[in-house]
C-alpha cells in the first residue's frame, strides 16, 4: 500500500466478518528496533470503548470503521497488523506493508546548467568540441526512482555512456538522485540531436517525468593570422631594452629545447624519465581519450531511442566506458571511469580443440592510472553473468553492476544488507539478485532501488545449523538452495514459498545449476567427487523430487588424478563443470551433454591466479582472479 495524503489504513479482515459489532479489533506496528516484535497502538472493544497506548496517542487513532488513521509516520516503510477477535472464533491477524511516499515536487527532472523552470534546454558546443556531459537530477523523493536517458532526431547513432549517483537524506528519509550521460565523438551529425532524461518510480507522476536537451553546434568565425618573414618584420616602437629581453627569452628557450632533446636521446636520461614521470606534478596525468572500440559493434541506425552503437575491439587499445575530463577529475565513487584495457596479455587464453578464443581485454574501474591497484577490484568473490546480458562483479568493496552496454553502477552491499554477511548469491530476475545469509536466510536485492527484502528461509534439518552452500534459480520459476550441513536441498517458488525439501544423506550438496527440459524443471548438484541430476515433478506442494542419474566422468578426460568439481552451469544443451587443477594458473572446463551426461569436450582456461570461469553467452567467456576480470570472445574468422 502506497500512501501520501490518504493516511487511513483499512483492516483487510473486516469485510470478511458476518457482523460489524460483536468483535474486538486492535492495531499493532512492527518494532523498528528488532524488526520482529509487534507494538500495540490502539484497541477498540465491542462496547465501543477505545484504548490507546500513550506513545502513539498523538500520531495514530482508530476510525469509526475500525481503520487506522496515521498523522505522522516513524519511517518510510512500515508494517501494520490488524488483529480481530470474535467471541466464538480464534484471533485472526492480517498485516499491511505501507510505504509513505515522498512525491516528486519538481515539475520535471532538473537539467544541470539549464533553467530549472524549463523542461526543454538547448546546449551549444564549439566547432571542435568532441565530448559533452549532461546531467539531470531530482531531489527529496521516496522510494528511490530511476533516471534513464534516450535520444531522438539523431542522423547517426550517438555514442554515450551513463552513470548514476544517489544520496539519502536521513532527516526525512528521502533520496536525491542524479544521472549523467557522457556523449563522446561529437560529430556534425549530432546537430539538433536531443537527449531526454526520464524519471520512473512510485514517487513520479506522469506529468513530471522527463526533460529534454537539444545539442546545437556553435557558429564560430575563425581568422588565419598573416605570416611575415623575420627579414621584413619591423618593430618601430621597440626600444633597445625591450629587444634585449626578447633576445634573452629566445636564448633561454633554445637552451631548454636543447637540454630536453639530449634527455630524450641519451638512454639513461630516457630511463630516468620513464621511471619518474608520474612523480612530476607538472606532467599531465590524463592519457589520451580512450577509444571506444570495445562496446558492441553495430551499423549506423536511423534516428530512434535506442542505445549507442559501438565498435569491436582492436589489439593494444584502451576503451573507456565512461570518461572524465581533466576538469572533472574529482568525482564521486559511482562515476569513476570504467575501461577495458587490452594489454595484449599472452598469459590469458583458452585452449579449445573446437574453437579459437581471442583475448579482448581486462575490465577496469576507478582510475586505471593508479599503479597500486590496476583494476579497481579487490578480493573478487564471484562474477554473475545474468540472463539479460548484464554482468555483476562482487568483491570486497561491494557490487559492481555492468549493463550490456557496459554502463556502470556501484552498489554498497554492506549498507544494502544492513551489515549482514552473505555466503552465496545468484541471479533471480531482471535487476534482482538473491543473497543467502548465515543461518539460512535468503533475501532479494533490488539493484535499481538498492534495497533488500526477505525472500525465504531454509529451515534446519535434524536440528543442525543451516550452512548454505549455493542457491540457484534465475527465470526457471523455482529457486533451489543447498544446505551443506543438513545435507538437504530446499525448493521454493518465485514468491518464496517452500514446497519441498529433498534430503541427500549420502552427499554434501555444493554447487547447483537449474535445467528446464520440456517444461519439467530439474537441477544438477555437485559434491566432492561427483555430479548428480534430479527432476522436479508435480504441482507445488504435491511436487516430487527424484534422482535421475549420476554423471560419470571418465578419468581419461580429466587433467588431474581425482575429479574436483567446482562451479557448474547450463549453456544451451551443455552442462559446464569446472574441474580444479593442481596448477593454480589453470582450470579445466568439462562440456557434458545436459540430457544424458555424456562427455563432449574439454577446454583449459589459463590466467595467473585464476579463480573462476563464467560464460556470459555462447561466444563470450569471463575469467576472473582475485583482482582481475578478463574477457575473451570466440573468433569468427
Explained architecture:
Helix content is 6%, strand content 43%. It is mainly beta. Among the domains are: 2-100, Immunoglobulin-like (Sandwich); 110-217, Immunoglobulins (Immunoglobulin-like, Sandwich). A 6-stranded mixed sheet has the order 1-9-8-3-4-5, with no helix packed on it. Strands 18-19-21-44-43-42 form a 6-stranded antiparallel sheet, with no helix packed on it. A hairpin with a 4-residue loop joins strand 43 and strand 44. The longest helix has 26 residues, at 240-265. The chain starts with a strand and ends with a strand.
Write the layout of secondary structure elements.
Elements: E1 2-3, E2 8-9, E3 23-30, E4 38-44, E5 50-52, E6 60-62, E7 68-70, E8 77-86, E9 92-100, E10 110-111, E11 120-125, E12 131-141, E13 146-152, E14 159-169, E15 174-184, E16 194-200, E17 210-217, H1 240-265, H2 267-276, E18 318-322, E19 338-341, E20 349-351, E21 357-365, E22 382-385, E23 391-394, E24 399-402, E25 408-411, H3 413-416, E26 422-429, E27 432-437, E28 441-446, E29 451-457, E30 468-472, E31 478-483, E32 488-493, E33 498-503, E34 512-517, E35 520-526, E36 531-537, E37 544-551, E38 565-571, E39 574-580, E40 586-593, E41 599-606, E42 612-617, E43 620-624, E44 629-634
Parallel strand pairs: 1-9, 11-17
Antiparallel strand pairs: 2-7, 3-4, 3-8, 4-5, 6-7, 8-9, 10-12, 12-15, 13-16, 14-15, 16-17, 18-19, 19-21, 20-41, 21-44, 22-23, 23-24, 24-25, 26-27, 27-28, 28-29, 30-31, 31-32, 32-33, 34-35, 35-36, 36-37, 38-39, 39-40, 40-41, 42-43, 43-44
